[in-house]
Write a structure and sequence with these properties.
By secondary structure, the protein is of the alpha/beta class. The protein contains 9 helices and 13 strands. Strands 7, 8, 9, 10, 11 and 12 form a 6-stranded mixed sheet that branches. Strands 4-1-5-13-6 form a 5-stranded mixed sheet.
Length: 256
């Protein structure tokens, strides 16, 4: 009995020793998933299709950037008003939503290299006598999307407290008001306004471009501390321009 007990004890001790020598298996951490904020009410840059999926030029560009940089992303449909606060509060990690690069915005976020050149244009309702930005000073109601470049420009032109300046929460609401004749004109980014005009050619709208509106540039935004992430985004953007991928995406939305 004693010999048998010692035999079992030796086997047990050997098993413990072998177990102690085994190296623990380290499971690699799951890759970080970056949440990309998008105000999906700004076609053709971002909108929701009939299947409920967020689609658009910004979506395709950001996805191409993510694929090139090896980043995993998910889209978060975020109202435009408050989207910058959402980034600052870390509820999202990136904004790719037609954000114009401005000196004021640079104080609170980090921008990528520009990926789209934009300009403000005027969409005039049928029958309205407006042919230049100066004519907006005599208009009864001029619509803009709140918090956009157009809002800032019109505040400077008409005055911050002007009763003629009407702000809307989203571009679709603004354009609907133009369709209904509720505003004399709307001011907005050329790509989005031209897209609306393309599908409403028979309604008698007039599109006005002017050198008085300076060129603007869209950038992808992150928090100021995320310099490493921004370096990856910029590197990917450069590659997309160099290998022709950017041009293909651009042509699919803005080909003349």
């Amino acid at each position: 009995m004693k010999i048998r007990f010692l035999h079992f004890l030796a086997i047990a001790l050997l098993a413990v020793g072998l177990s102690a020598c085994e190296k623990p298996v380290n499971t690699p951490p799951a890759p970080k998933v970056y949440r990309v904020g998008m105000n999906a009410a700004f076609a053709p840059f971002g909108s929701v299709d009939t299947a409920g999926k967020i689609v658009g030029f910004d979506v395709d560009i950001m996805q191409a950037v993510a694929d090139q940089a090896g980043l995993k992303i998910v889209w978060v449909n975020t109202p435009w008003e408050g989207i910058f606060t959402t980034l600052a509060n870390a509820d999202i990690d990136i904004i790719a939503s037609g954000v114009t690069i401005t000196d004021e915005r640079k104080q609170s976020m980090l921008f990528s290299d520009p990926y789209f050149e934009a300009k403000q244009v005027i969409l005039v309702s049928p029958g309205k006598d407006i042919s230049s930005p100066d004519d907006l000073k005599q208009a009864h109601r001029v619509g803009v999307t709140a918090g956009t470049s157009a809002d800032t420009i019109m505040q400077k032109m008409l005055g911050k407290t002007s009763n003629a300046l009407v702000r809307f929460e989203s571009l679709p609401l603004l354009l609907k008001e133009v369709d209904n004749g509720g505003v004399d004109a709307a001011v907005g980014d050329n790509g989005a306004v031209a897209n609306h005009l393309k599908f409403n050619k028979d309604k008698g709208f007039k599109l006005i471009e002017s050198d008085k509106f300076e060129k603007e540039y869209y950038g992808i935004a992150v928090r100021p501390a995320d310099t490493a992430l921004m370096a990856q985004i910029n590197s990917a953007l450069k590659t997309l321009h160099a290998n022709g991928s950017y041009d293909k995406i651009y042509a699919s939305y803005f080909a003349k």
